[in-house]
Specification:
The complex is a heterodimer of chains A (582) and B (408). Chain A has 582 residues and is of the alpha/beta class. Chain A has helices at residues 8-14, 67-81, 98-105, 123-134, 157-165, 197-201, 213-221, 235-242, 252-262, 274-291, 303-312, 326-342, 360-363, 383-393, 424-438, 475-486, 516-532, 542-552, 558-564, 572-579; strands at residues 39-42, 49-50, 62-63, 138-139, 145-148, 172-174, 181-183, 207-209, 226-231, 266-269, 297-298, 349-355, 370-371, 374-375, 379-382, 448-449, 455-461, 466-473, 494-498. Chain A is globular. With 408 residues, chain B is of the alpha/beta class. Chain B has three domains: 16-226, NADH-ubiquinone oxidoreductase 51kDa subunit (Rossmann fold); 236-318, Ubiquitin-like (UB roll), CATH 3.10.20.600; 323-406, NADH-ubiquinone oxidoreductase 51kDa subunit, iron-sulphur binding domain (de novo design (two linked rop proteins), Up-down Bundle). Chain B has 15 helices and nine strands. Chain B has helices spanning 16-21, 26-34, 37-47, 59-68, 89-96, 99-112, 126-141, 172-179, 208-220, 222-227, 259-264, 323-337, 343-360, 368-381, 387-406; strands at residues 75-80, 116-121, 157-162, 203-207, 236-243, 249-254, 278-283, 289-291, 313-318. In chain B, the strands form two sheets. Chain B has a five-stranded mixed β-sheet. A four-stranded parallel β-sheet of chain B has the order 3-2-1-4, sandwiched between helices. Chain B is globular and about 70 Å long. The mean pLDDT of chain B is 95.
Chain lengths: 582, 408
C-alpha cells in the first residue's frame, strides 16, 4: 500500500521491488533525479521518467523492468564504469561499494567504453587515459577524511548532506561537462568540521575515512609496545553490523575478542569513566552557577562542535566546558595513573581508541592534548577501519572466546552507565548538580520539544533558580540557538551538542548503511540495554572513588584540571588568512 | 514581408530618435493609454504568436500562467543567450534595431504585471551588451522605461545580465539558476517558471526575436499578424542561412516558407556557390535535423514533429564536405556544452566525442560502431533535459543518410 505523497521509488522499495539509484538517499529528500538509473514507464507519461520524481496516485500503472528500461540502465552504468574500470583491487571500498553491486545486478561490462589493456594501440588513447588521471584531485591534507575524485560518480549526496543537513557547505560541484567533479572552492584542501557525514553517504570511495590501520598493526607487532585500546561510545552496539548481525545487536564480547586476538594487550570500555566525567562536568557547572556564568555552558565532547566554535564562533569559546572528552580523559589516565599502577613506562604505551567518529582523528592531534610529547591518545580507529582489518586478517569472530572488557585502568569495569546515546551527558550532569545543590534525587528528566527544530529541552528547579538545559543533534539545528546566544537572548544554562544527526550513533565512522532508520534502531537497542543494566551511582563507583582517592584528590582539583581539562584556540583569524591570501 | 527587419540599415541603434521616427514606442503608448493587461494578452493570443527560441510554445500561455499568480514581485526576462551554432539573429536585432526588444519587453511586462526586467545576453556578445546598456539609458531618459512610464502608473526597470557563454543557459531553468548565481544546470519541472521562477517568483522568459514581434502586433493588430505566414505558425521568422550559399546571413521570411525557397531563391540564400552542389541542409542549428533533396519542399513551421524549425538556422552543406568533420564538430559541441549533471549526457557526450575523433582519424575500433548506437540510445531517452536528445539528432540522421561514407 503506497503512502500519500510518496514517490514510486520509495513505494517500490518498501514493497521489495528493486529500482536502482545512486543519487537517491532516504535522508536526503526530495531526490534530485540526476543519476537516471531509476527511470520507469508509467501510463501517465511518455517515454522514461524518473521514479524518484513520480508521485504515486490512484490508477497509476508502472513498469519497472522491461527490455528498454534494462538496456538503458545497463548502458548508463557502463558509461559510469568507464572511469572505474580496472581500479577495484586497490580501492578502499572494494567489496563494499554501491557501484560494484549495481555492476553485478546489471551484468555490466566495465571496459565497454574504454580500451582494454591489449587494445591500447595509439598514442591518442594513452593520452585519453592520462587525461582522465590529470583531472583527478587527491586530498588527504586533513587527518580525518580522504577525497579521491577519480572514484566520484557525481551523485551529489555529499554536497547535499553537508549543505542541507549539516549547514556547513564545504563541498560543491566544480567544472562542467565531463570534467564535473565534487570539490572544494578553488580546489583548496578540505577545511571543514570533519564530521564525516559525506563519507557516510558516498556510494564509492571518492570520500572515505582516513585509513590508519597500519599504525595500529605496527604498534601491535612491536613486542616492546603495550597496546591499550578503549572502545568509545556506541561501538558496543554497532560493531556487530560489520559481522552481518542485526542492527542494534550487543556486540561487546565480539569486539573485545577481536581486539584481543588482533593483539591489543588491554581493552577498556570508555564508558567505565562515565561517572568520573559526570562528576568533573557537574563540578565545573556548579562553579558557573555560583559565579553566575558564563551561560550557557556548552559541552565539549564533540570534536566537530569544538572545531565549529573555534573556527566560526570564537566569541563562544568562553562558554565551552573545559572538560576533555571521555576518550581523552581515559587516554590521559592510561598514560599516567594506569602506567604508574602497572609500573609501565608511559613512553611504551600505545593508546588507541576505537570510535564511530572521524573528527576524533583531529582531536587526538590537538597540541593541548598531550603532556610533554606524550599524547593522551595515540591513534583513533573508526569502526569501518576495523571492518577492513576484519576482512584482511580473516579472523573468524564467531569462533573466538567470549571475553568481557578488562577492568578500566585496572580498577573495575565501571558503573554500567552508558554514554552511547546523545543526551546522556546532559541528563547525568544535571541530575548530579541538582542532587548536590538541593539534596533531591531526580530519576527522570522530562524532555520536551523546543520550538526550534530538533532541539529537546528541559527545566529543573534549584533552591532559588530554574535551570534550562537542551540537547541538540546535527549542526544545522544549532544555528538558531547560536544566534540567540551571541545576541544575548538565550535563556539556556547548559547545552549538549553532538554534531552528527541523531548523535554519535550517526557518526562519520559507523558501519554503513547509517541512514535514519538504522540510527533509530541503534538508539532503541542502547535504551533497552540501559534499562536492563544495574547502574551504580558515582559514590558507589569504584572507578570514581579510587581515582579521586589515589590520584586526583577531589573534583576540580589542580591535578584534575591538569589532566582532565583543556583549553581552546581561536582559529577564526587563521582561517580567514588562508581564504584571503594576497 | 518585413516585420522585424524593416528599416534595418536605416536606423542608428544608438539614436533613439531614429527609432521614434519610424513609429518607435507608439505601440507602448497605445498599450499604456488604451489597453489593460488583459487586453494585451488577448491580442497576443489572437495573433497566434509562438516562441521564436525553438520551442514554439504559444506566447499567451506563459503570460496567462504568470498573470494568474497573485504574488506582487514578477520578472520578465528576455532570453538573448543565443548559443545555438549557426544562429545569430538576436545579435542582428541588437545591432540593427535594439529598441524593438526594449519596447516589446516593456509591453510584455505590463501584460503580466512585472516590475523588473532582465535581458540575459550571451557572455560573448560584449559589443551588443554595450549597445543595449546605452539603449536603456536613452529609453529611460525619455521615460519609456523606469518609474511612471509615459506618465502612467506602470513602473518597469530593465537590467542587462551577461552570461558566461554556456549553451545550456539558454534553457529556461538553467538561465534562472545562472541569474541566481548558481551553476547553470537545468531544474526539474514542475514547478514551471511562470509559477515559481527567478528567486521563487513568477517569471516569464521570452526569446529576443519573439519579443521583437510584439510592437508590430500591437500597432497593426493581431489579425494582420495572423494573416502573414502559415495557419499553423503566423508571422515571419528570422532564418540564419549559412554554409555554401551565395548570400549567407539573416533573412526574414514568412513561416511556412520551404528550405527550397530559403536556400535557392535569390531573395534569400541565392543558391549554392559557384561550382558547388547541394548535399544536405541542417535545420535549426547543431541540434537540428538533416534534410536531403527529398525534404526541400517541406514548409517550415513551429510544432512540426518531423522537421522541427528550431532556432531557424539553416546550414547548407555541399557534396565536397567531409561528413566526419561535421560529426566531430557536433559531438565536440555537445560534449563541451553538457552541464555535467546527469550520467547519460555527461559521460555519453564525452565517449561519443572520443569515438568521433577516432572516426575522423580513420582509427575506428571494433566496438565503436555498437557503442555509437548505445550512446545515442541513452541520449535519446534518459537524459535530465532535452540537450541529450539534441546531441543525438544530427548523428542519427547522418548515420541514416551517409552510413557508407562514414564507415568506409
Amino acid at each position: 500500500m503506497a503512502r500519500d505523497g510518496e514517490t514510486v521509488l520509495e513505494a517500490a522499495r518498501r514493497a521489495g521491488v528493486k529500482i536502482p539509484s545512486l543519487c537517491h538517499h532516504p535522508d536526503l529528500m526530495p531526490s534530485e533525479g540526476i543519476c537516471r538509473l531509476c527511470l520507469i514507464k508509467t501510463n501517465n507519461s511518455k517515454g522514461l521518467v524518473p521514479s524518484c520524481q513520480t508521485q504515486v496516485c490512484p490508477d497509476l500503472e508502472v513498469i519497472t523492468d522491461d527490455e528498454e528500461i534494462i538496456k538503458t540502465r545497463k548502458v548508463n552504468l557502463e558509461l559510469l564504469w568507464a572511469d572505474h574500470a580496472g581500479k577495484c583491487a586497490q580501492c578502499a571500498k572494494n567489496g563494499n561499494c554501491e557501484l560494484q553491486r549495481l555492476a553485478q545486478e546489471y551484468d555490466v561490462d566495465e571496459f565497454k567504453f574504454v580500451p582494454r589493456r591489449n587494445e591500447l594501440l595509439s598514442d591518442d588513447e594513452l593520452d585519453m587515459l592520462k587525461n582522465n588521471w590529470i583531472h583527478t584531485v587527491y586530498d588527504d591534507a586533513n587527518p580525518c577524511i580522504v577525497r579521491d575524485s577519480q572514484y566520484c560518480v557525481e551523485c551529489r549526496r555529499c554536497i547535499r548532506v553537508c549543505r542541507d543537513i549539516q549547514s556547513i557547505g564545504a563541498l560543491e560541484m566544480n567544472y562542467r561537462s565531463s570534467m564535473t567533479n565534487v570539490g572544494t572552492p578553488y580546489e583548496m584542501p578540505l577545511d571543514c568540521i570533519f564530521c564525516g557525514q559525506c563519507a557516510n553517504l558516498c556510494p564509492t570511495a571518492a570520500i572515505v575515512e582516513k585509513d590508519e590501520t597500519e599504525l595500529l598493526l605496527k604498534a601491535i607487532n612491536d613486542p616492546q609496545i603495550i597496546v591499550v585500546a578503549q572502545v568509545d561510545s556506541s561501538i558496543k552496539f554497532t560493531f556487530g553490523e560489520l559481522l552481518g548481525c542485526q542492527v542494534g545487536t550487543n556486540s561487546i564480547e565480539k569486539i573485545v575478542s577481536f581486539l584481543k586476538t588482533l593483539g591489543c594487550d588491554y581493552v577498556f570500555d570508555s564508558s567505565a569513566l562515565a561517572n568520573l566525567a559526570v562528576v568533573e562536568e557537574a563540578e565545573e557547572f556548579i562553579g558557573r552557577i555560583r559565579k553566575g556564568g558564563p551561560f550557557p555552558m556548552l559541552t565539549s565532547w564533540c570534536p566537530s562542535w569544538i572545531i565549529l566554535i573555534e573556527k566560526y564562533y570564537p566569541e563562544l569559546i568562553a562558554n565551552l566546558s573545559s572538560c576533555k572528552s571521555l576518550q581523552q580523559m581515559m587516554g590521559v589516565l592510561i598514560k599516567s595513573y594506569f602506567a604508574y599502577r602497572k609500573k609501565f613506562n608511559s613512553k611504551t604505551i600505545f593508546s588507541v581508541s576505537v570510535t564511530p567518529c572521524t573528527s576524533k582523528k583531529y582531536e587526538v592531534r590537538r597540541s593541548d592534548h598531550k603532556s610533554g610529547d606524550i599524547a593522551d591518545v595515540d591513534l583513533v580507529i573508526t569502526v569501518r577501519e576495523l571492518g577492513r582489518l576484519l576482512r584482511r586478517k580473516v579472523i573468524d569472530v564467531e569462533k573466538l572466546p567470549q571475553l568481557d572488557f578488562d577492568p578500566a585502568l585496572g580498577i573495575s569495569t565501571g558503573g554500567g552507565l552508558l554514554f552511547d546515546r546523545s543526551g546522556s551527558l546532559a541528563e547525568e550532569t544535571i541530575k548530579t548538580v541538582v542532587e548536590r545543590l538541593t539534596g533531591k534525587k531526580i530519576s527522570l528528566i522530562d524532555w520536551t520539544d523546543s520550538k526550534e527544530k530538533n532541539v529537546k529541552e528541559a527545566t529543573v528547579v534549584l533552591a532559588n533558580q530554574e535551570l534550562k538545559i537542551c540537547i541538540i543533534n546535527g549542526i544545522k539545528n544549532t544555528r538558531p540557538i547560536i544566534q540567540k546566544i551571541i545576541s544575548g537572548k538565550s535563556d539556556y544554562h547548559f547545552i549538549e551538542v553532538m554534531a552528527c544527526p541523531d548523535g554519535c550513533v550517526g557518526g562519520g565512522g559507523q558501519p554503513l548503511p547509517s541512514d535514519r532508520a538504522v540510527r533509530l534502531k541503534r538508539i532503541e537497542a542502547i535504551k533497552a540495554w540501559e534499562e536492563k543494566s544495574r547502574l551504580k551511582k558515582a559514590n558507589e563507583d569504584p572507578v570514581v572513588n579510587t581515582l579521586y582517592h589515589e590520584f586526583l584528590f577531589k573534583p576540580g582539583s589542580k591535578i584534575a584540571k591538569k589532566y582532565l581539562h583543556t583549553s581552546y584556540v581561536n582559529r577564526n583569524e587563521a582561517l580567514l588568512k588562508t581564504l584571503y591570501k594576497p | 514581408m518585413k516585420l522585424i527587419t524593416k528599416n534595418w540599415g536605416e536606423i542608428d541603434p544608438l539614436n533613439i530618435k531614429a527609432y521614434q521616427n519610424k513609429s518607435g514606442y507608439l505601440a507602448l503608448k497605445k498599450v499604456l493609454r488604451e489597453m489593460s493587461p488583459t487586453d494585451v494578452i488577448e491580442e497576443i493570443k489572437k495573433s497566434g504568436l509562438q516562441g521564436r527560441g525553438g520551442a514554439g510554445c504559444p506566447v499567451f500561455l506563459k503570460w496567462e500562467a504568470a498573470t494568474a499568480e497573485k504574488l506582487q514581485d514578477k520578472y520578465y526576462i528576455v532570453n538573448l543567450d543565443e548559443s545555438e551554432p549557426g544562429t545569430f539573429k538576436d545579435r542582428a536585432i541588437v545591432d540593427n534595431n535594439p529598441h524593438l526588444i526594449v519596447e516589446g519587453m516593456t509591453i510584455g511586462a505590463y501584460a503580466i504585471g512585472a516590475k523588473k526586467g532582465i535581458i540575459y545576453i550571451n557572455g560573448h556578445y560584449v559589443k551588443q551588451a554595450e549597445i543595449l546598456r546605452l539603449v536603456l539609458e536613452q529609453a529611460a531618459e525619455k521615460e519609456f522605461i523606469g518609474k511612471s512610464i509615459m506618465g502612467s502608473a506602470f513602473d518597469f526597470e530593465i537590467t542587462v545580465f551577461s552570461g558566461a557563454g554556456a549553451y545550456i543557459c539558454g534553457e529556461e531553468t538553467a538561465l534562472i539558476n545562472s541569474l541566481e548565481g548558481k551553476r547553470g544546470e537545468p531544474r526539474l519541472r514542475p514547478p514551471y517558471p511562470a509559477k515559481e521562477g527567478l528567486f521563487g517568483k513568477p517569471t516569464v522568459i521570452n526569446n529576443a526575436e519573439t519579443v521583437a514581434n510584439i510592437p508590430f502586433i500591437i500597432n497593426r493588430g493581431a489579425k494582420c499578424f495572423n494573416n502573414i505566414g502559415s495557419q499553423k505558425s503566423p508571422g515571419t521568422k528570422l532564418f540564419c542561412i549559412t554554409g555554401s550559399v551565395k548570400n549567407p546571413g539573416v533573412h526574414e521570411a514568412p513561416l511556412g516558407t520551404t528550405p527550397q525557397e530559403l536556400i535557392f531563391n535569390s531573395v534569400y540564400g541565392g543558391g549554392l556557390r559557384e561550382g558547388k552542389d547541394f548535399l544536405f541542409a541542417q535545420i535549426g542549428g547543431s541540434s537540428g535535423r538533416l534534410i536531403n533533396r527529398s525534404k526541400l519542399d517541406y514548409p517550415l513551421v513551429f510544432g512540426d514533429q518531423d522537421l522541427p524549425i528550431g532556432s531557424g538556422a539553416i546550414f547548407v552543406a555541399d557534396t565536397l564536405c567531409d561528413i566526419k568533420e561535421h560529426l566531430l564538430s557536433w559531438a565536440g559541441f555537445f560534449h563541451r556544452e553538457s552541464c555535467g549533471k546527469c550520467v547519460p549526457c555527461r559521460e555519453g557526450t564525452y565517449r561519443l566525442w572520443e569515438i568521433a575523433k577516432r572516426l575522423k582519424n580513420k582509427d575506428l575500433r571494433p566496438r565503436d560502431s555498437e557503442n555509437i548506437e548505445d550512446i545515442l540510445w541513452v541520449l535519446e531517452r534518459s537524459t535530465f533535459c532535452p540537450l541529450g536528445k539534441f546531441a543525438a539528432t544530427a548523428w542519427r540522421d547522418a548515420l541514416a543518410m551517409f552510413k557508407d561514407k562514414i564507415f568506409k
